[in-house]
Amino acid sequence: MKNIKDFNLEELKKELIQMNEKPFRAEQIFRWLYQERVEDFTSMTNLSLELRKKLEENFKIGKVEILEKQKSKDGTIKYLFDLLDGNAIETVVMEYKYGKTICVSSQVGCKMGCKFCASTGIAFIRNLSNGEIVEQILAAEKDENCKISNVVFMGIGEPLDNYENVIKAIRQINHPKGLNIGARHISISTSGIVPKIYDLANENIQATLSISLHSSNDEIRSSLMPINQKYPIAELMKACKYYIEKTNRRISFEYALAKDENDNLKAAEELSKLLKGMLCHVNLIPINPIENGKYVKSTNENIIKFRDYLNAKGIVATIRRELGSDIDAACGQLRRKNL
Ligand code: SAH
Q: Is 29 in contact with 18 (CB distance < 8 Å)?
């Protein structure tokens, strides 16, 4: 059955017209779903009994169920959500000074095959629908009785490999009658699917784009991230420059530091040359260990040296705070599960 949360306002209006109902009912339904957060059609008391019945016959109100919830020493929460089709995904909620950030998954598994990331270790199963992406936020807010202020597409999956649904989810998250979270509070992270970066630039969404770069050397980057063989660094940078020009938004480059792989000063020098003059920011991530992974975290000393080198060259670089690593909730540690 169709999940009503997969429909945006315009699409729902069309559905209602087809059901011989007034399109403004769609706004009432949206209010029930995204403000009141009801979980059944019976509770939508300003709709006629007849319409509620029709809705029930034609739609389900999609949901995800909490299978497991873990809390880290630092307050980070990791959910294992049941998608109710035999698949489960992980979602993380982090606490920052400025509010709560949720890290959502966009796919069940991932096709990218990055060597340092646990999300890709097991097969890709399917894309999440836009409703399932949004539902992760609704379920976490309900469970914690809180309001989430920031959304990052940095969970399991490659968001630009599920482009249509991710864009639709972002619009729903951002919509005043949806979750009403400002676009500037939404970040999309990509391993670098170049044609989709151009598409995203043309969407006119004020979200932040993060690029998982991890090396400015094609040979090293290809060894870490197979996608680099298809879209090498020069092409990726061209797309990033187009994105900046088109949106006037700063790009955030993510760089996970692995000991003796990409963490020396020569790498920092190459990186500073690559990014020179670009409207950007570098997010250094001490690489998180994964099961059977061969990469080891850089030493604190090297991480600080790397940052200081970039800063000295005029490139703004910060070290990402490690959250949730004690419950495998940190970057690159999320996995899909079979039920
Ligand atoms: N597929 C998207 C979304 C995942 S985001 C992407 O690649 O950007 C998760 C971020 O964590 C990415 O920057 C990813 O490269 C990074 N990451 C993956 N594994 C990691 C690990 N073991 N340690 C630190 N960061 C990691």
A: no
